Structure formats: C-alpha cells, structure tokens
Amino acid sequence: MTTATVSPAQRVTAGIGRTFTSPKYGPVLVTGILFIAIFVGGGMRYGNFLTGQVFLNLFVDNAYLIVLAVGMTFVILTGGIDLSVGAVVALSGMMAASLLQTGWPAPVVIATILLSTSVLGLLVGLMIHHFKVQPFIATLAAMFLARGLCYVISQSSISVTDPTFVALGVTRMSLGGGMSITWSVIIALAVVAAAVWVLHRTRTGRTVYAIGGGEQSGILMGLPVARTKVLVYVISGFCSGVAGILFTFYTLSGYPLTAIGTELDAIAAVVIGGTLLTGGYGFVLGSVLGVLVLGIIQTIITFEGTLSSWWTKIFIGALLLVFILLQRLLTARRR
Amino acid sequence: MSAVFARVFSSRLFWPIVMLLVLFLINVIAFPGFFSIQVRDGNLYGSLIDIVRNGAPMLIVAIGMTLVIATRGIDLSVGAVCAIAGAVACSILLGSSDPANPGVVIVAILAALLVGLFCGLWNGLLVAAFGIQPIIATLILMTAGRGVAMLITEGQILTVNSPPFKVLGSGFWFGMPVAVYIAAIIFVLAAVLTRRTALGLLIESVGINPEASRQAGVRSRGLLFAVYTFCALCAAVAGLILTANTMAADANNAALFIELDAILAVVIGGTSLAGGRYSLAGTLVGALVIQTLVTTVYTVGIPPIATMVFKAAVVTAVCLLQSPTTNEALAGFRRRLALRTGKGVAAA
Predict the structure, then answer these.
(1) A288 part of a folded domain
(2) Tell me, what's the ipTM?
(3) Could A320 and B143 be called an inter-chain contact, meaning their C-beta atoms sit closer than 8 Å?
(4) Residue B4: its pLDDT value, please?
(5) What residues of chain A lie within 8 A of the CB of B151, using their CB?
(6) What is the pLDDT of residue B330?
(7) Of B148, B149, B153, B122, which is closest to residue B137 (Cα–Cα)?
(8) Cβ–Cβ below 8 Å for B136 and A271
(9) What is the pLDDT of residue A314?
(10) pLDDT computed for residue B348 by the predictor
(11) What transmembrane ranges does the database entry give (chain B) (predicted)?
(12) Which pTM value belongs to this model?
C-alpha cells in the first residue's frame, strides 16, 4: 500500500483531477469555468456588464431555449436526436396567435398547443421505435410537417393581443436591487426542476440513462425500453410546445419563419453542456449552463457593438468544436 | 410470373418509381400538357425540362451525400458549403474590373471549388482523423459556415452581372440546360468511379464496419477523407449553379434546407442511413421524386408554401414502406396469398 506516502492535499488534487478528466463531470465543469471566465472578462471590458440584471437577462432572453434544451437532453441521453424542435416552436407560436385571434380563451389555447405537440412527439416516437425509422429521418419529417403547417396557418406575421398572453409576456417581477425577471423565467426553471427530478429520482430517468448506455442491455435487464424511448420524444414534443408558448410571450406574435435553426442551438447547448451525443452521460443542469454560455456570447457581441452578428455563428461553431474534441479526449482516456 | 412479380416488388427502386409514376399521373390529370416539350430558339422548354433543371443542384448534392451515407456518415454542412462557394465566386467577380471576362469567371469558379475542397478536408479531418460522429462533425461547419459566408459577403447580398457566369445557372447547350449536363457528368463520374472499380465496394465495407475493414487492409481513413471531400466539392458545384441562377450570393438563404432535401432524395432512393449499401440510381429517382413533388404542388394549384407538408407526407410514407416492420408484414401477406393459391408454394 502506498497510501502512506500520499498526503491528504495530494489526494484532494488527484480527486479534482479525476473529476475534470471524467466524461461525466469534466465537460460540465469546463463549461461552468468558461461561463464564469466570459462573464468576468466581459465585466473587465465593459462598465455595466458584471451586474445581476445582465445575468438575469440571460434567462429572460433564453427561457424558451432552456426549455428546448431540457427536452433535447432527454432525447440525446437515449442516443437519439430531435430536429423538429425549431419548427414545432414556430408552429406553437402560429397556433397560439391564430387561435387567440379567433377568440379562444388563453388557457384552452395553451392546453391545445401542449396536447398537439405532445401527440406529434408521440407519433415520432412510435415511428422511431415500432417502424425502426432513424430518429434523424423521423424528426426531419416532423420538422417538414410542422414548418409546412406554419405556412398553412398563415404566411404572414400575426400579432398577439390577448390580455393574458400580453400580461405574462410583459409583466416583470422585481427581485429587489433593480433586478427583475419575467414569468417565462419561472416557467423555464420549473421545467428544469421537473426534468432534474425525473432524470435523477425516478425509474423513468434511470431507464433513459440505461438506454443511452446500451439499449440491448436495458432490454435484457427487463427495463421498459420501448415505452421510455417513445416517452422521450413525447417529452421533447411537450417541451417544444412549452418553449413555443414562452417564445410567443417573448415576441407577442406568430411568424412562420421564426426559430429556423433553433434545433441546432438546442443541440449545441446540450453538447456544450457536457451531454455525450452517443447517449448515457449528461445532466439537464449542464444543458442550462450550455444555453447560458450561448446567451453570454450573444450578450458580449451586443456589448461589443462593432462585431457583427455573424460572428455569433462562428463563435458557436468554434465552441462546439472545442467541446466535442474535449468529450472525445475524455472518453478516449477512459478506455 | 409470380417470381418476376416478386423480383420487381422486392427491388429497392420499386416504391420510389411507383411514387414517381403516381406523381406524373397526378400532373397529367391536373395539367394535360405536362409531358409536352416545346422548342424555342433551339432550346427545349417544358415541365419535364423544368424538373430536371431545377432539380440539378439538389441531385448533385445528393450524389455526394449518397457516398457519405454509404460510409454510415452524414453531411449536414452541404448547404453552408453551397453558400460559401457562391459567396467566394461572387466576391471575386465583384472584385475584378471586368466580371464578364471568361478568364475571371474561370478563376472565380476554381477559387470556389478550392474553398469547397478545404471544407471537405475539414469535415474529413474531424470524422476520419478525430473520429467525431459525422452528424456532429458536420454540424460545426453547418453552424459556422453561414457565418463564414456572411463574413465573405460582409453581410450583404452580393449581386453580380457576368454573362459567362450566368451560363452555369440558366444557359443552354444543344437545347438542354447547362446545369443538367453538369449533373449528368458528375452522376456518370461517380457511378463509373465507384461501380466500375472496387471503390464502391470499399466504401460499402467502411460503412458496414470501419474497424474491420481497416484490419482487412482497406484504407478506411483515406476513403472517409475522399468521400467527404467529394461531397463538399459536389456542394460547391451546386452552390455555383444556384448562385449563377439568381446571380446573387445570399449567405443566409442560399441553398437553405438543401442538405435535408438531399438526404431525403438518398433515403427515398433506398439507401439506408445505417450505411453499407447504396444506390446512385436510387438517388437519381429520389431527387426526381422530390423535384416532381414540388412541381406537382405548383401545377395542382395547392399554395406552394404547403410543399413542406407534402414532403413530410412523402418521407413518412417512404420510411414506413421501407421499414423492416412493414416488410415483414408484407412478406407474411405474400406467403399467405401464395398458400391460398397453392401453386405459389412451389415457385417460392
């Protein structure tokens, strides 16, 4: 035994080293440090950057993306992918705007949207599981369907004037010290809390991780793989519906061309948040952190003023590359 | 008779061709002049010519995509590569004092192809050398690529005026659109190169099991590099045609969703996304199905904007028809049918 020669301090450093190089915690920690570094760096460069409101605005502006990333995390944890989320966000917005226009009460509209997006998720899930269609293609079909239905509903922008939606979208709750948040933030955080509970405290959550770790083993262990695999797409559909409603609160309009490419932002957030694309490893809170990193890059570019918006895309691409290489390195070292 | 029927029925091209014929039928009913082709100024015009001409860029991208998918990969970055190639060509044409000079046009085209080559090498590097999942490796260029294209065009939509360059998009040679010749050359090149040599077999072996084929002496890394580079080159050519068609480089909207259409064409053509088997002829039929579907939506008088709903329906139908579950059910149905007629048992 060589434990006698290892001092407690050395053991702690070794522990930290192991945490950083584990595929489970490593990427999340790196993302966390990156976020703090960008935030502090921004604070040193710009006067009004290092404030609570700038931080809270990340949640206010990206509430819908947080919810999307939560749903996407479930799907990616099982080793799947959902390309339809951006189009479903747009469809939810179009449904909300047009149904409210025809005079439906807000709660009924919200319930209808959540029900229809969940049913769409269910159909996609059934197609993937029972007809063995690849997730990529099945969700691609769902994306075409949802985007096409947007145009069928209307080809131009419809504004939302419903008092409930306007109130939920505009009202800001003061947190003291001049800081405030919107209802969307609370809804998004509630979704995150629910997702954390499901993934880490329930049988369903363990099955999700098990499917990502190895579907065959899951089946052999007698886990309800079929049901859970379909459920994951229902969750993603439901989350897209919630995200669509939050997006409608934020923009107070429905437009068929909104949210093009949002599915990629959601996937990028999940990857940057440390979830392995092959499934099995990852945390919902990591995905939230991923969204915050994307948000803060956007904020920096806004503060910088001279950097044009296309740099956002290049930065996100570069960041994706770094994190994927990092994941690759960490999983390679483990073997 | 039933053996012939069974062979035709089980062919992977059966459903795509049926679908194409159904679409043609709908078109003829809605628009009796669908198959008529007129000659104007020595050039051919007509619905069928429109289909092959407008479908050419997507077919070119789909040919490259077929080979990538055969290696069990996927290339999401083709749309972005199209945009980059268009941006490079347009910015060179705009930067020159005489955009109508054929020499300048050739330089612009070569530069765009060279940039396409680099994009392909980059994807190949990530997939073959670093071993990143193809969908994610190419997602990086898909995300960043349009940003790069916007950087080249400085956020503007560059419009150019160069008659020699315009030929690429809307010119005619011997009555047929130039774009169709380009697509045909690339198709024949890919088919001869992969089917008349062992290259296609090697690509398929990499798709079935890269590690096993490497141990069997196949240079799987080099093949992956080659396939992604070829795909990006195809995308660059398609980008040039699309740009020459509109005579404008739009970094944001050029070739938007072309990767999805191309993947659809490949999947409709019977190539499995699981890799290992591919059919270039299938891809050709698939691309025709998609382009005919778009044309059908126009001729039948459905708002063109609803095209995507129909695309979704076609994808779903094809996927469900090709799924193992359906195949088993169909096989069971045929067996029962054969049992009932009695004679079929011996034939089977």
Answers:
(1) yes
(2) 0.76
(3) yes
(4) 67
(5) 310, 314
(6) 78
(7) B122
(8) yes
(9) 85
(10) 44
(11) 12-35, 55-71, 78-97, 103-128, 135-152, 172-193, 223-242, 254-273, 280-302
(12) 0.83
Q: Which two tokens stand for residue A180?
A: 């405030």
Is A43 a domain residue?
no
- Examine residue B334 and state whether it is found in any structural domain, yes or no: no
Tens digits of residue pLDDT in A212-224: 888 888 888 888 8
Residue type at position B111: A
Q: Is A7 on the interface with B (CB under 8 A)?
A: no
Expressed as residue numbers, the domain containing B157 is: 12-31+45-326
Per DSSP, what are the bridge partners of residue B45?
Answer: B38
Taking the C-alpha atoms of residue B114 and residue B175, their distance in angstroms, rounded to an integer, is 30
The phi, psi pair for B131, rounded to 5°, reads 70, 30
**Three-class DSSP category at A48:** coil
Instruction: Measure B274 CA to nearest chain A CA, in Å.
Output: 9
The number of residues making up chain B comes to 348
* Segment A236-285, tens digit of pLDDT: 999 999 999 999 999 888 888 888 778 888 998 998 888 888 888 889 99
* Residue B102 Cα, gap to closest chain A Cα (Å): 32
CATH number for position B73: 1.10.3470
Average pLDDT over residues B235-241: 96
Would you say residue A130 lies in a domain?
Answer: yes
As for how many domains chain B has, the answer is 1
Amino acid at A314: I
Q: Which residues of A touch B140 (CB under 8 A)?
A: 317, 320-321, 324
Residues of B in contact with A144 (CB under 8 A): 260, 308-309, 311-312, 315
Task: Tell me if residue A173 falls in helix, strand or coil.
Answer: strand
Contact A145 B273 (CB under 8 A): no
Residue A264 lies in a domain: yes
- Pick B315's closest partner by Cβ from A130, A141, A151: A141
Whether the CB of A277 is below 8 Å from some CB of chain B: the reply is: yes
Answer yes or no: are the C-beta atoms of B6 and B335 closer than 8 Å.
Answer: no
Which amino acid is residue B24, in one-letter code? F
Kindly report the length of chain A. 335
Task: Return the pLDDT at B37.
Answer: 83
Nearest to B323 among A131, A142, A314 (CB): A131
Tell me which DSSP letter residue B125 carries.
I
Please indicate, yes or no, if residue B173 is contained in any of the structural domains: yes
Q: Please report residues of B whose CB lies closer than 8 A to that of A271.
A: 136
What does the pLDDT look like over A75-132, one tens digit per residue?
Answer: 999 999 998 999 999 999 999 999 998 988 989 999 999 999 999 999 999 999 888 8
Cα–Cα distance measured from residue B267 to residue B19, given in angstroms and rounded to the nearest whole number = 13
Residue of A132, A142, A324 with shortest CB distance to B136:
A324
